[in-house]
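Researcher: Next entry in the queue.
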Amino acid sequence: MNRLKTIREDAGFTQEQVAKAHKVTPQTIQRFEKGTRNISLAWLEKLAKFYNVRVSALVDEVNAQDIKSVDNDVDEAILREILTYAQTRCKGFDVDPATLAKVVCKTYKKCRKMSGTQKETEIKERVDDMLTCVVD
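Model: Structure for this entry, 136 residues:
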């Protein structure tokens, strides 16, 4: 999520200022920027509004090369399953394609080594968590 830091700095804010404006600790903002904490679409929307940018500006584009760097032997069945579930959850809502791609890629990273019910449960939980502001 290096783009979060770059955009924050370009907007002239410190982590402390952003944290205070959103009533969270500076560590929360730091974790979002470092990618050590998942960021929901609700948070992306709050930050985009605060920085006066589009949500898509905050999210790194996800492409085939990004997925290849996660796993040289991409399991397309898992990717399809995640994407199908995410698209179903987003039906009727305006979701930025780059954000949806990021959700799919992050979920894939977590689920690629799982199987069966554990994988299905994890997919649903992760996608639902990251898409909360869109589907609620």
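Model: The radius of gyration is 15 Å.
Researcher: Noted, moving on.
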